[in-house]
Amino acid sequence: MSVDMNSQGSDSNEEDYDPNCEEEEEDEDPGDIEDYYDGVANDVEQQGADAFDPEEYQFTCLTYKESESTLNEHMASLAATLKVSHAVAKLVLVSFHWQISEILERHKANAAQLLVEARVQPASSKHAMVHSSHHCAVCMQFVRKENLLSLACQHQFCRSCWEQHCTVLVKDGVGVGVSCMAQDCLLRTPEDFVFPLLPSEELKDKYRRYLFRDYVESHYQLQLCPGADCPMVIQVQEPKARRVQCNRCNEVFCFKCRQMYHAPTDCATIRKWLTKCADDSETANYISAHTKDCPKCNICIEKNGGCNHMVMGFLLFSADFCWMCLGDWKTHGSEYYECSRYKENPDIVNQSQQAQAREALKKYLFYFERWENHNKSLQLEAQTYQRIQEKIQERVMNNLGTWIDWQYLQNAAKLLAKCRYTLQYTYPYAYYMESGPRKKLFEYQQAQLEAEIENLSWKVERADSYDRGDLENQMHIAEQRRRTLLKDFHDT
């Protein structure tokens, strides 16, 4: 990796989608390698047990109509078994996350208690007395008996108040959450009770969308695609924190939390890390400029590529060092483990609160800098990927082979991005990990992965200097390191 010198100092068919979703065209960032999980399998073929991919995960992309049909099928079956209306069956399914086997077990044990827990029937001791008075309990107006409406709890209110109640909640985006107006009554209103109370078709359409959203989000096997205005639904058999991709908008995300895919870090940890990064963004600003001083001549330097192997050459001297620790690269191979591992102060618990606070900040900045460095490297290596594509195109146009002949270069850049993305997310994992033998094993595997990624990055950026066999061998090693780490530490 050469350096730039700066001045001294300072993711179907259209008719299957919700018609209310307006499709917007987004500007694609040419620096992103969105498909880096595709097309590299043949170049890193494994044999026997090595073929295990800890990220392998089966999922299906469903259209709006397909997912609605799936939900309705479950609902109809349960309604017949419980002998309740379809609307009530849906509320029961939502309450128990659509786990039908659990619902049937509870129904067999105590059918009445099941409906109480689903908030569609009141507990027997809480049944309200039906008053002979025809006054609405909200507006206190005298109302004809036929205009008084109530749920199973028998809390009676006039139709006008029910209409206002439902209208306000639906306008606020509430679906399944529409409930009884009586104080301390948590009974949910079935959809067949709400629909006749909504005054316009527009409001009814909104209510349908909010209900669909709530039904999907409560289903343990379904997730809405988080892509902008995308109505697709991802279906799995076993919900896990695994990578899924929408086949309509190509959005890639974690099935469990719908955030950016973050293996090996688990969902709760990555939320804590991203929150901490946002809260401490001002503290970390001084390291986000991506500039450092050369350890030999003190000239301010900036990375212009993804790898951390820095090379500076002048008439009087040359420097060969690591971007992260600024150590001599010649001895770096044996010390790489030290570069990626934070050295805890074992005596810090016996020192002052100020010293502990400084140590905590030092530790955070250590991991944050490496997190940011790999994010920056991903962006720079995406530019390398674009240059490789252009180079392949040029060679094909000049009859120097076909796309198939040179595709291994493109696949190498994709695999590099895939491995570095995983490496970036190892740092939040390590930051929150407790000290001990398991953390030592993790840091060892992290360092092994990082070393091979830097070797791969160096060779990808200088692909013309290495033959195909050498490059593909490095790809194989890097992917093996990545899979080994995920196999041992990926949240299951």
From TrEMBL:
Subcellular location: Cytoplasm; Nucleus
EC number: 2.3.2.31
Name of one Pfam family that matches: IBR
Gene3D superfamilies named in the record: 1.20.120.1750, 2.20.25.20, Zinc/RING finger domain, C3HC4 (zinc finger) (3.30.40.10)
Reactions accelerated catalytically: [E2 ubiquitin-conjugating enzyme]-S-ubiquitinyl-L-cysteine + [acceptor protein]-L-lysine = [E2 ubiquitin-conjugating enzyme]-L-cysteine + [acceptor protein]-N(6)-ubiquitinyl-L-lysine
UniProt biased composition (Acidic residues): 12-37
A GO CC term assigned to this protein in UniProt: cytoplasm
Highest taxon in the source lineage: Eukaryota
A GO BP entry: protein ubiquitination
Stretches for region Disordered: 1-40
Compositional bias annotation for Polar residues: 1-11
Pathway: Protein modification; protein ubiquitination
Keywords: Cytoplasm, Ligase, Metal-binding, Nucleus, Phosphoprotein, Repeat, Transferase, Ubl conjugation, Ubl conjugation pathway, Zinc, Zinc-finger
Signal peptide: none
One of the record's GO molecular function terms: ligase activity
Domain RING-type, residue spans: 132-343
Family to which the UniProt record says this protein belongs: Belongs to the RBR family. Ariadne subfamily.
Protein name stated in the entry: E3 ubiquitin-protein ligase ARIH2
Gene behind this protein: Arih2
